[in-house]
Amino acid sequence: MKHRVACVDVPALPLQLLARAHPAWTELPLAVVEDDDPQAKLLWVDSKAAALRIRPGLRYATALQISRELRAAPVAPDVLAAARAELLEALQARTPRVEPDAERPGVFWLDPTGLVPLFGPVERWARHVHDGLTALALRGSVVVGFARLPCWAIARGRRDVVVLRSAAEEAARAGRAPLIRLDLPPALRDALAALDVRDLGGFLALDRGEIGLRFGPEASRLHALFADAMRPPMQAAAFEEPIAIEAELDPPDDDAHRLLFCIKGALHALMAELGQRALALAALSLRFELELHDAHEERLEPARPTRDALGVIELVRLRLADLRLPSRVERVALTAEPARLDGRQLELFGGRRRDPDAAGRSLARLRAAFGERAVTRPVLRDGWLPENRFAYEPATSVDAPRPGDEGDGALVRRVLSRPERLPHDRDGRPRTEPPLVRLTGPYRLQGGWWVKEVLRDYYFGEREDGALLWLFHDRARRGWFLHGSVD
Predict the structure, then answer these.
(1) What pLDDT is attached to residue 2?
(2) 188-192-197-202 Cα dihedral, nearest 10 degrees
(3) Angle at 142 (CA atoms; ends 136, 148), nearest 5 degrees
(4) What is the CATH architecture of 242-400?
(5) DSSP labels, 328-383
(6) Chain mean pLDDT for the chain
């Protein structure tokens, strides 16, 4: 029997992720924008937005003029990568051979070979795969056929399961697929439309040599792939089995010292398994199954991937010292998050030899003792409001100091994460303690009309004691606010 291949197509994956993150928006026109900015371009639009003639490529502000009901937000690359990893894991539970498509974020290729004894007929297996998409609150289709891109051409625009009986049926159904659905390069699609070629069958009827001469090698490559004249081998994603070990306590116990002793033995076995796979420990998950309550989970992350069991045990000891479990522990499960070891060496700073990981180990100890967000650092963010231009994220390392020119110290503006309202006198001037002696301004900030307009007049205020404040008058809220100070 000819080799079978299955295509899983989750169309407009970024748009579906946005809808999943904001369920209240599902009844409104929806779009994914490239950035959190009124002039950002739309990347994806749903059918409701398309019906209003809102198209990808429009600026968000322009699209809002068409419909004030439009809801839009960016989908960060890490969110998209996490969703692809989530999809990959779900599909690998149905077949060990899954290849994510490198060009299309919502497309995966599956090998159904050998699964009939486990699932029964191919149709049943395909429905099982489709159920995996539904469980993730994603819409898509599953097509089982004989060639990759013809299967994908059939899958586009569907939300069901299709099992093709023959290569002839596959070619006939794929040939009816409109080219506008197949993500062809716009120049090629427009050129084919000028020749009145609007479906895949018409494209494949053209001579491949002429296609290459007239439209270039990329068009020739696509022709060969859709015609199944070029069949790349499947490169299945690595199927990483979890590295885990369990230890049972008989009788159940809640003493921190005895729990640490139990975890210590399991951890050495876990580290030995990592060593056999040439891996290091990036993070350790601990699951405590309790006698009378639901299981409790903890996660520990060393300063860098390591094989040092004693260092990890010290982190466990610090976490257990502050842990209060509601009942005794019956079983402890340890799961390793593996990573490759790097070859980073010690560096020299300022003529002294220092261990660049020492600060990282100290931060890891603080996180183990006081929680993941015990140590944070400020990072810049894109935003037009001052309070939205920075945030705090957990710090896992300390950057090496960089030599710089010494000179006069620069003024530093210390910005509050949330402006504080100030009282005002009868003349409408802000009151502080000690009082202000001078106001310099205004410096107007205006925007947000695409959601909720903000109009602020910023001032620098000098107090009697010499302190320099940064404050503003909010016209919409009719009040003064302290937003920071200048040192």
Answers:
(1) 62
(2) -50
(3) 125
(4) 2-Layer Sandwich (3.30)
(5) -EEEEEEEEEEEPPP----EEETTEEE-TTHHHHHHHHHHHHH-TTSSEEEEE---
(6) 86
- DSSP label of 38: T
- On the 0-12 / 13-18 / 19+ scale of CB atoms within 10 A, 267 is buried
Question: Which portions of the chain are predicted below pLDDT 50?
Answer: 1, 344-352, 405
Residue 418: Cβ within 10 Å count: 7
- pTM for this predicted structure: 0.56
pLDDT of residue 346: 36
- Residue 292: CB partners within 8 Å, gap ≥ 6? 326, 327, 328
Question: How confident is the model at residue 398, as a pLDDT?
Answer: 73
Cis before 117? omega within 30: no
In what helix (H) or strand (E) does residue 298 lie, and over which residues does it extend? strand 296-300
Nearest residue to 105 (alpha-carbon basis) of 6, 11, 42, 17:
11
- At 347, which amino acid appears? E
Per-domain residue ranges for the chain? Answer: 169-226, 242-400, 413-486
Per-residue model confidence (pLDDT) at position 349? 41
Q: Which residues contact 136 (CB under 8 A, 6 or more apart)?
A: 86, 87, 90
> Is 108 strand, coil or helix?
strand
Q: Which CATH class is domain 169-226?
A: mainly alpha
Q: What is the pLDDT of residue 117?
A: 67
